Amino acid sequence: MTRQSISFTKPNDEWLKAQVKNEEYTSKSELINDLIRQARKQQVQVDFIRAKLDKSERSGFTDDTKEQILKQSKFLLNGQI
User: Please, what is the angle between helix 10-21 and helix 28-59, to 10°?
Assistant: First the structure.
């Protein structure tokens, strides 16, 4: 594992210390690594949603009402294609 030296603002450092003090994490390093893992996972989800939105926008728009779209979505979710 590589070592890094980083600086925190006072409020952020106090929050980190509080998490360790409350025994949520054993160290600030463990907490920072967990936050980075969460951010990476969230980025994967954001990228997935962005790709779906881009694909949808490229496929064109519909004149269906929101009620019609909702009905069709529920129909598809129930496995009735």
Answer: 110
Looking at residue 26, the DSSP 8-state letter turns out to be S
Q: For residues 31 and 37, give the distance between their C-alpha atoms in angstroms, rounded to a whole number.
A: 10
Token duo for residue 66: 């929101």
Structural domain spans, the chain:
10-77
Q: What is the pTM of this model?
A: 0.64
- Residue 29 above 60 pLDDT? yes
The model's pLDDT over 30-58, given as tens digits with 9 standing for 90+, comes to 999 999 999 999 999 999 999 998 988 88
Tokens in use for 59?
């496929």
CA distance 68 to 71: 5
